[in-house]
């Protein structure tokens, strides 16, 4: 079972339009509503693969109730922590060429008591978890060390932790030695304080995160692929995405695939790449099922192309 923790979940509405025109009245060609948040998406991808998952998350107001309802409709067990504030609602506008415009709300401010209740809920449900995936930004009211406290408590309970966050919360949590961290290129560059121009730069930055405490780094490099950097070696995985429809949740699908495949080694990296490539071909934040995957299109190698310039170098 994979337990996910989403401190700042959302209700996500996605609209597909022919062209985004500022100041105009637009008619959507399609629209959908999904439970959102990085950990929520990981649970949705795990459930789509037919695996057991439990989503632990703070929920408040009518949007929070709808998030829980939508998750349960997908067969996902929910451990909801009631909060006084209202769960945020986000809007995404997708265009045919893959361009995505997002408006993310701030979300509620959690009290000290709600913060502690959320940690208690994770501890109460962690005994049966193969992995705990802690994902996304922290809401107002939670200090940057909140993830560090969660990692420490989970390790005390004998659980393995995968962390997908950025900025001060990531750097603070590294001191507690999370088992896996999953930054994208921009987050990786910010964590080490220097730009990334090549895949070799990304490998070096991932090594720096390991030196700071991360046991394994799974780094998403967008269209260029993904890196897995561990104490045993470095691997590079890639796959052709012939038609990008929406990249919402693609990184979360990758993490789900990685953990569902065991969470270590090149086989798990191949699963991560396959899930990410499948996710970008789907609308909104739809998570891929096994029938959406194309493992034959995935290449994983230990011969990492260090000198290859990234398609989107970080500033």
Automatic annotation (TrEMBL):
Q: Which GO terms describe its molecular function?
A: 1-phosphofructokinase activity
InterPro entries noted in UniProt: 1-PFruKinase, PfkB_dom, Ribokinase-like, Tagatose/fructose_Pkinase
Which residues does UniProt assign to the signal peptide? none
EC numbers: 2.7.1.56
Q: Does the keyword Transferase apply?
A: yes
Annotated keywords = ATP-binding, Kinase, Nucleotide-binding, Transferase
Keyword set includes Kinase:
yes
SUPFAM superfamilies, per the entry: Ribokinase-like
Q: Which Pfam families match?
A: PfkB
> Coiled-coil stretches, from where to where?
none
Start and end residues of each Carbohydrate kinase PfkB domain: 20-290
**Family statement:** Belongs to the carbohydrate kinase PfkB family.
**PANTHER family in UniProt:** 1-PHOSPHOFRUCTOKINASE (PTHR46566:SF5), 1-PHOSPHOFRUCTOKINASE-RELATED (PTHR46566)
Q: Which NCBIfam families match?
A: 1-PFK (TIGR03168), pfkB (TIGR03828)
Q: What is the name attached to this protein's record?
A: 1-phosphofructokinase
UniProt lineage: Bacteria, Bacillati, Actinomycetota, Actinomycetes, Kitasatosporales
């Amino acid at each position: 079972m994979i337990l996910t923790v989403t401190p700042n979940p959302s209700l996500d509405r996605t609209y597909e339009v022919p062209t985004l025109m500022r100041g105009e009245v637009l008619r959507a060609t399609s629209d959908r509503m999904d439970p959102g948040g990085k950990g929520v998406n990981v649970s949705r991808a795990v459930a789509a693969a037919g695996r057991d998952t439990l989503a632990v998350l703070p929920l408040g107001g009518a949007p929070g109730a709808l998030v829980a309802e939508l998750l349960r409709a997908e067969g996902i067990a929910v451990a909801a922590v009631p909060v006084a504030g209202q769960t945020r609602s986000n809007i995404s506008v997708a265009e045919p060429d893959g361009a995505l415009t997002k408006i993310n709300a701030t979300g509620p401010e959690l009290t000290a008591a709600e913060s502690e209740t959320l940690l208690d809920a994770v501890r109460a449900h962690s005994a049966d978890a193969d992995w705990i995936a802690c994902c996304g930004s922290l809401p107002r009211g939670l200090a940057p060390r909140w993830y560090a406290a969660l990692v420490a408590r989970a390790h005390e309970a004998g659980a393995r932790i995968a962390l997908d966050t950025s900025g001060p919360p990531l750097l603070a949590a590294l001191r507690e030695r999370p088992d896996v961290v999953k930054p994208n290129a921009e987050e990786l560059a910010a964590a080490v304080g220097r730009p990334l121009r090549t895949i070799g730069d990304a490998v070096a930055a991932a090594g720096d995160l390991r030196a700071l405490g991360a046991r394994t780094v799974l780094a998403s490099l967008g269209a260029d692929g993904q890196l897995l950097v561990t104490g045993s070696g470095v691997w590079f995985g890639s796959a052709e995405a012939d038609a990008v429809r929406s990249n919402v949740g693609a990184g979360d699908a990758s993490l789900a695939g990685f953990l569902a495949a065991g969470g270590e080694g090149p086989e798990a990296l191949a699963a991560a790449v396959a899930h990410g490539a499948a996710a970008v071909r789907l609308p909104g934040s739809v998570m891929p099922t096994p029938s959406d995957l194309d493992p034959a299109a995935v290449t994983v190698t230990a011969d990492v192309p260090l000198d290859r310039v990234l398609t989107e170098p970080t500033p």
